[in-house]
Design a protein that fits this description.
The chain is mainly alpha-helical. Helices cover about 80% and strands about 0% of the residues.
């Protein structure tokens, strides 16, 4: 049995904030409470409020501000001698590093956060940090390395009845199954995640689950209308909560669905929108995926063959350098799809 979803990153004076609070509201209240704590000389409270500020900035795509905020939260936590708060700040920094494509830094910060969380007796930040490590490996395509960790974290979340973490783990495992071609298993897991998230009133988790279901409806069932309807529902939640990154990935998925339906001009427009959104928040993985979709759409719309070859070759280099194995394989498939392998190899 799962209770209502909660946001453990909203701490100190901000524990009354909901997991579904608008990020603009979180940022405003978090900044106000942070300033109060700093004026009052309470570094522990400043660290806790600063965490919410860092996370709001990160999820709004405000990378520089998020970077400053998590570091300030860590310094305040260290001044207060609060080991658990230090762990939470490092978790935020590691999550930001992954979002920016700085994977070695993400591994380092999240590993440190997990260790500090264990030393500080905070099982939640330890779990979130281990989850961050698992997600980093999954995004890089190292499924064998992190699949077992995903399953372990899912079991722990189920045992504690933590809806939000259960939903995260289910979605991560589902994505790995989807990427390896087991669409039926992926759909079942995304469906379970959506049901748990909806009952727990976790709108963010529900939006990501709907996105996963839409992907399967499109690629397995060829049901374009159903996929777009699911994505429209997810987009409404993203907009209500100002989830910039999730919204950009939603738009990218809309492009995928339209491309598979051979609606190339519409797909091009969605990929262009997603690309602009990813670039505005300095999210290189999303930017590369949007570029890939856009390159394929433009090729279908008659773009010069040499330009398509050059774009895909450049993407291959970018993704290889970033260590994104699954996305790199997607580029290889696109090169094969357009018969460009030999041209790229020259």
């Amino acid at each position: 049995m799962y209770g209502k979803a909660f946001a453990p990153e909203y701490q100190g004076a901000l524990t009354t904030l909901s997991v579904n609070s608008s990020l603009v509201d979180v940022l405003a209240e978090g900044t106000e409470r942070l300033r109060e704590a700093e004026r009052s000389g309470h570094p522990g409270e400043a660290a806790r409020c600063g965490l919410a500020v860092a996370e709001a900035h990160r999820r709004l795509g405000q990378i520089r501000e998020a970077d400053r905020a998590w570091k300030a939260s860590y310094r305040a936590a260290r001044e207060a001698g609060d080991t658990a708060a230090m762990a939470w700040a490092l978790w935020s920094g590691g999550t930001l590093a992954r979002q920016r494509g700085a994977f070695p830094l993400a591994w380092r910060l999240l590993g440190l956060a997990a260790g500090l969380g264990e030393r500080g007796g905070d099982v939640v930040v330890r779990g979130y940090s281990l989850a961050g490590l698992a997600e980093t490996g999954r995004i890089q395509g190292d499924y064998a390395a992190v699949g077992r960790l995903h399953e372990q974290l899912l079991a722990e979340a189920r045992r504690r009845g933590e809806a939000r973490h259960t939903v995260w783990a289910l979605e991560g495992i589902a994505q790995m199954h989807r990427n390896t071609g087991d669409y039926d298993r992926a759909y079942a897991l995304f469906e379970e995640a959506a049901e748990i998230a909806e009952r727990a009133e976790d709108r963010r988790g529900h939006a990501w689950a709907l996105r996963g279901l839409a992907d399967i409806c499109s690629v397995r069932d060829k049901d374009t209308a159903r996929a777009l309807e699911l994505l429209a529902r997810a987009e409404a939640s993203c907009r209500a909560m100002n989830l910039s990154s999730a919204l950009a990935y939603n738009h990218k998925m809309q492009g995928n669905v339209l491309y598979r339906a051979k609606r190339y001009a519409e797909a091009r427009d969605l990929y262009e929108l997603a690309l602009t959104e990813f670039r505005s928040m300095s999210e290189p993985r999303g930017e590369a995926l949007a570029r890939l979709g856009l390159a394929k759409s433009l090729a279908r719309l008659g773009r010069n063959r040499a330009e398509t070859a050059a774009e895909l070759a450049d993407l291959a280099v970018v993704l290889e350098r970033g260590g994104l194995k699954h996305a790199r394989a997607m580029v290889a498939r696109a090169q094969e799809e357009f018969g460009l392998g030999a041209e790229v190899a020259r």
